[in-house]
Design brief:
It is built from 8 helices and 11 strands. By secondary structure, the chain is of the alpha/beta class. α6 (158-169) crosses α7 and α6 crosses α8.
Length: 230
């Protein structure tokens, strides 16, 4: 399966590297570029599915480059999300008027950025609404009811599949046993909390066969968290 490609154009090394890492962990194929000139060269070789673009860039500013891009018949359909320290309303309006699809003010939450990227991609018709969920090398296909890790299909029960679906759509957040029961089993079903522990152990055992049992983490005194980050 070809992954969605995102071009990150950001001149600050630390921010650019962080964005690329976050997007890769979210299942995208991310490439980092430092300025508009290098971005033009990248576009001549490959057109990404979406561009995350910093407003202030050396040389040609991000907003000016976006304006030119939206006038280019070969690139005008590429969705753009602008990143900027500018929070004034007129700046937001200007960014949207030149054709940007969304706008985020620094500092921002990486999780919110990923959510906005997916929303823009759905509006652009480039991804289906969570029919296939990808985190790193893990793919959960809700239509075919398949869970794969790399090129291996994992054999999980329907309950474990639903548990993974919830975890993968809510990564890095801690959930109590009660919350997991409500979200995965449903509030109308009475099941003891220790049932969650049983399914967590089964899920970890399956993941352990591929050395990935650490994906499902125990947060003592709180519950469980699914994360690609140790």
């Amino acid at each position: 399966m070809t992954r969605i490609s995102v071009l990150v154009v950001e001149d600050e090394d630390a921010i650019r590297d962080m964005l690329v890492m976050v997007l890769e962990q979210a299942g995208f194929n991310a490439t980092g570029i430092c300025d508009a000139e290098q971005a033009n060269k990248s576009l001549s070789d490959h057109q990404p599915d979406l561009i995350v673009l910093d407003w202030m860039l050396p040389g040609i500013s991000g907003v000016e480059w976006a304006r030119r891009l939206k006038k280019d018949q070969f690139c005008r359909e590429i969705p753009i999300i602008l990143l900027t320290a500018r929070g004034e309303e007129e700046d937001k309006v200007r960014g949207l008027e030149i054709g940007a699809d969304d706008y985020m003010t620094k500092p921002f939450s990486p999780k919110e950025l990923v959510a906005r990227i997916r929303a823009v991609l759905r509006r652009a018709g480039k991804i289906q609404d969570l029919a296939q969920i990808t985190l790193g090398d893990i793919i959960l296909d809700t239509e075919q009811h398949r869970l794969t890790l790399g090129d291996k299909q994992l054999e999980v029960s329907p309950t474990e599949f639903r548990l993974m679906q919830f975890f993968m759509t809510h990564p890095d957040k801690v959930y109590s046993r009660t919350q997991l029961l409500d979200q995965v089993w449903g509030r109308s079903v009475y099941i003891e909390e220790r049932t969650v522990d049983v399914h967590i152990r089964r899920l970890r055992k399956i993941l352990a066969e591929y050395g990935r049992e650490d994906l499902v983490q125990t947060v003592r005194g709180f519950g469980y968290r699914f994360s690609l980050i140790d």
